[in-house]
Structure formats: structure tokens, C-alpha cells
Amino acid sequence: MISWKPEYSVGIEEIDTQHQKMFEILNVLNDAVEAGDDVEADFFTVRLLRYYSEYHFNSEEQLMEKYHYLGLDEHKEEHEKFKAHVYGLKKEFPDDKILLASRLKEFVQEWVIEHILGTDKKYSSFLIEKIENNPV
Q1: Residue 21 is part of a domain; what is its CATH number?
Q2: Tens of pLDDT along 46-73?
Q3: Torsions phi, psi of 92, nearest 5?
Q4: In a domain, 129, yes or no
Q5: Which of 5, 26, 46, 52 has the greatest number of CB atoms lying within 10 Å of its CB?
Q6: Strands, E, within the chain: which ranges?
Q7: What confidence tens digit (pLDDT) does each residue in 1-43 have?
Q8: Residue 68: enclosing H or E segment and its boundaries?
Q9: How many domains does the chain contain in total?
Q10: Rounded to a whole number, what is the distance in angstroms from the first to the last CA of the chain?
């Protein structure tokens, strides 16, 4: 199980809420893996986790574009590496939904925490200042 901690906050409500939703999805995925439920595991790995992560990545990138964040290209590159790794796992385990879900859960859980505490924290103060000074 993965729990949200205050130190994961980037100070932007929209992004924090999306990160928290990713944690919820990972926890449901964890439950499916532990129960050996391949239908549930397949749903969460293939659909919800994939689509929600893309939605979240787009949200972050749009904010960075809007406020001309200089680290945007580097950030996008990390998102692309994430997607490539996830799709690589799908190819590696096409018939074993539980093993795929387990490997995906382990990778995403570690990646999300490292990404939030590292890469996302880099843009945090920049975007907070821009949002506060240029409200929409």
C-alpha cells in the first residue's frame, strides 16, 4: 500500500489531487494483485492507470507550457520514458495479467514517489509563484 504524505505535496491543488488519485489507483491495483484477480488487474493496468497517468502528464505539461517553465522538455522526457517502460512491460507479459499488474505496480509506485519528490518539486515554487501572480 502507498499512502499520501504531506511532503509529496507540490503546493498546487490540481496536481496534488491528481497525485493522490494515482495513489488510490495503485492501492486498488495492489488489492487486485494480492487477490489474484486478473480481470480487475487488467482493468487497472491497461485502462485506468494508463489513461489517468496520461491525463495527469498532460495537465502538468499544459501548466508548464502556459507559464513557460524552462524545464518543460526535460519533464516531458521523463513522462515519455515512463510511458515507454509501461508499454514495454505490457509487451513482456502479454498473457500473464497478474504478473504484469504486479510488475507495473512496483514500477509505478517507485517512479511516482521519486518523480514527485524530485522532478515535480523542481517546478513547484516556479509554478506556484506564476499562478499566484497571474491567476486565470
Answers
A1: 1.20.120.50
A2: 677 788 889 999 999 999 999 999 999 9
A3: -70, -35
A4: yes
A5: 26
A6: none
A7: 789 999 999 999 999 999 999 898 888 888 888 888 777 777 7
A8: none
A9: 1
A10: 37
Q: Which residues contact 104 (CB under 8 A, 6 or more apart)?
A: 29, 45, 49, 86, 89
For residue 44, the enclosing domain spans 12-133
**Segment 75-91, tens digit of pLDDT:** 999 999 998 988 888 78
Q: How far apart are CA 23 and CA 78, in angstroms?
A: 19
Q: For residues 69 and 45, which has the higher predicted lDDT (pLDDT)? A: 69
Angle at 101 between CA 113 and CA 9, to 5 degrees: 20
In a domain, 2, yes or no: no
Instruction: Tell how far CA 100 is from the center of its chain.
Output: 17
Torsion of CA 42, 77, 18, 89, to 10 degrees: 10
Decide if 15 contacts 116 (C-beta within 8 A): no
